[in-house]
Amino acid sequence: MITLYELAGADAERRFSPYCWRIRMALLHKGLEFSSVPWRFTEKQAIAFAGSEKVPVLTDGDRTVHDSPKIAAYLEAAYPDRPSLFGGAEALSRFLVDWTDLVLQPGLFRMVVVDIPPLLAPEDVDYFCSSREARVGMKLDQFCADREKKLVEFRASLAPLRRTLGAQPFLHGEAPAWADYVVFGGFQWSRCVSPLKLLEADDPIHGWRERMLDLFGGEARKAVGYPV
Amino acid sequence: MITLYELAGADAERRFSPYCWRIRMALLHKGLEFSSVPWRFTEKQAIAFAGSEKVPVLTDGDRTVHDSPKIAAYLEAAYPDRPSLFGGAEALSRFLVDWTDLVLQPGLFRMVVVDIPPLLAPEDVDYFCSSREARVGMKLDQFCADREKKLVEFRASLAPLRRTLGAQPFLHGEAPAWADYVVFGGFQWSRCVSPLKLLEADDPIHGWRERMLDLFGGEARKAVGYPV
């Protein structure tokens, strides 16, 4: 029995962690059944058993794994007969993980983080704002000022992604795999917390995101959020 | 018999095209013998048979292929019993090609393009300068001004590469493959034309570049250029 601890907002159905989305999509890719436990930032105690202060945390019988790339590697090793997450290219996919963590998600963070506090469970608001404000050195509304200019820069930063997805349907090729789920996690994070329209309709990335939203019976499309 | 047409400077041994380096390394990876023909920008006639105005152009018996990703795909298909260039991940490697073409190499271009004209064959200088100045809308020395600031930005743009190569020896994993040769081509281009020191010695990318320079009997290390 697999259980996934996922970050949630005041609405327990608002699951908005990009890292948890990676794993939700990976579990669906593998066709594995799982139950999901909504988790809030301040519930450190609830995942202390995993030796982690952050989600995703996954338990599978008596195994506990945290950190999204480690969870993906665990699932691939534990369920080798299910569709492969890496297609033999786990190492090569690391660059896409690092690009997502260091380019894509920071580019989103500085636009949408201000949209998050109103969606959080009341007990999470102070923790979230003070920890993020300490990190960025200012109030979140200041930090997210001038969105229009940042959106232009954000779209420019996606140039390599745009060219790749203009040439093939998924980052992994004809079908999606781990690299797609990782990059998609960033976009889905934004979709779950912000009304900001990230992509023009004629952007090849938009077309790819639509294909990702359609996967697994439209699982990601049904998520609580903003369908922009 | 394989022949590779490679961009050269006034010194026919100065081979400085990032795209040609990709293919030189790919041929060595496959263990294929080849002869190299030095080619200058203004020798369009010499490669007209290939339907291309640019190198690399590769001929193999009566086959002619141009464009570096197409040449790599050709070599993989034509020599399947040799070490694989893609390790099954050709599609996934496309993002690294696009990142190299749209982030890494433009970041280098705006620092080092001014170093190229003095190294060119005399008949190439006017063509090179006027075509590049038309592209960037100014003189090349103006375009490459303020290198120190650009170097800081360039190094920052390498953050994903740095993190990946801090975690594993090559982009492809334990051993190099196509993605490594593509990214390395950019660094080797700079090494062949510019004394600019791109990387600090403690940068994980520096360590990777050293490993790349050591491959195939130090082929890339022996290249005419600036060992910085």
Helix-strand blueprint:
The structure is a homodimer of 228-residue chains.
Chain A: E1 2-7, H1 18-30, E2 34-39, E3 57-60, E4 63-66, H2 68-78, H3 90-112, H4 122-136, H5 140-143, H6 147-157, H7 159-167, H8 178-193, H9 204-218
Parallel strand pairs in A: 1-2
Antiparallel strand pairs in A: 1-3, 3-4
Helix pairs in contact in A: 1-2, 1-8, 3-6, 3-8, 7-9
Walk me through this protein's architecture.
Two copies of one chain form a homodimer. With 228 residues, chain A is of the alpha+beta class. The first copy, chain A, has a single domain (1-228), classed as Glutaredoxin (3-Layer(aba) Sandwich). In chain A, 51% of the residues lie in helices and 9% in strands. Chain A has nine helices and four strands; from the N terminus they run E-H-E-E-E-H-H-H-H-H-H-H-H. A four-stranded mixed beta sheet of chain A has the order 2-1-3-4, with helices on one face. In chain A, helix 1 (18-30) links the parallel strand 1 (2-7) and strand 2. The longest helix of chain A has 23 residues, at 90-112. Chain A starts with a strand and ends in a 10-residue tail after the last helix. The mean pLDDT of chain A is 97. The interface between A and B is medium-sized, with 29 and 29 residues.
Largest sheet of chain A: 4 strands, mixed
How many extended strands of chain A?
4
Q: Largest interface, per-chain counts?
A: A-B, 29 and 29 residues
Give the end-to-end Cα distance of chain A, rounded to a whole number of Å: 35 Å
Low-confidence stretches of chain A: none
CATH class of chain A reads Alpha Beta
Question: pLDDT average of chain A, as an integer?
Answer: 97
Assembly form of the protein: homodimer
How many domains make up the 3D coordinates of chain A? 1
User: What structural class do you assign from the helix and strand content of chain A?
Assistant: alpha+beta
CATH architectural type of chain A: 3-Layer(aba) Sandwich
Radius of gyration of chain A: 17 Å
Side by side, the strands of the main sheet of chain A go 2-1-3-4
* SSE string of chain A: EHEEEHHHHHHHH
CATH evolutionary superfamily of chain A: Glutaredoxin
Strand fraction of chain A: 5-15%
Number of helices of chain A: 9
CATH third-tier fold name of chain A: Glutaredoxin
Q: Overall 3D geometry of chain A?
A: globular
Q: What fraction, in percent, of the residue positions of chain A are helical? A: 40-55%
